[in-house]
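Can anyone check this?
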Amino acid sequence: MTRRIGCRSSCGCLLLVVVLGIFGLAQPARAEAETAVEEDISLEDPFADAFEEEAPPVYDPLEPMNRSLFWVNDKLYVFLLKPVARVYRVVPERVRVSVSNAFSNITAPVRMVNALLQFRGETFWNELARFEINTTVGLCGLFDPARNVFSLEKREEDFGQTLGHHGMPPGPYLFLPFFGPSNIRDAAGTGVDFFLNPVTYLTWDWTFLEQAGLKTGEGINTLSLDKDTYEAIKRDSLDPYLFIRNAYAQHREGYIRK
């Protein structure tokens, strides 16, 4: 019995590593891919206009540690996560898009609450309308008629943005183990968003392995839809670490100022 429990625990730890790695390494590629689509920028040059204006320097006093963690995440991405995601591409793209839509739809309350906390009434009603339409007409969020029929685009809102909206500075840049690029403000915001996320409560009684399995599936699905943006950044950048650090800071600042 002890041996079985130990084996179960080891499997759980491995799944946790995979889960965190998937989301951390998918984050920069996914965020910039979405930006490119929204602004009609070719993914071959995902930051074509990113540095035309001089950006404020990113405060990075922990750069040696951050670079070490960036290297670890890079190897995890290259040798484990992306290969698995590419195999998963055998699933029809329409199915994978529907899975992504469903995960996005169920987290709409996170966006709604943060819109209210930022006093953005229009954004709140936009996300509420999207949630109602996609949950009903869109079959529990599998489809996105709110966007495709009613032209209601998703508005990204999170607690890190809320803190920034109310004047909190980002603080030191952090490359978190497995989570990826962040800063003090956004890391704190992620913890708050965890408790705003309905999935947290829907899976509260699940075992650790069941929760990890759900997150792993979501992460692999996300990576399978990415068009190798991270690979393009590595290929075209003299220093991918600096590129992702600066791009992340500008990306977050753009969301806060919008």
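Reply from J.R.: I decoded it. Residues 2-41+67-257 form one domain.
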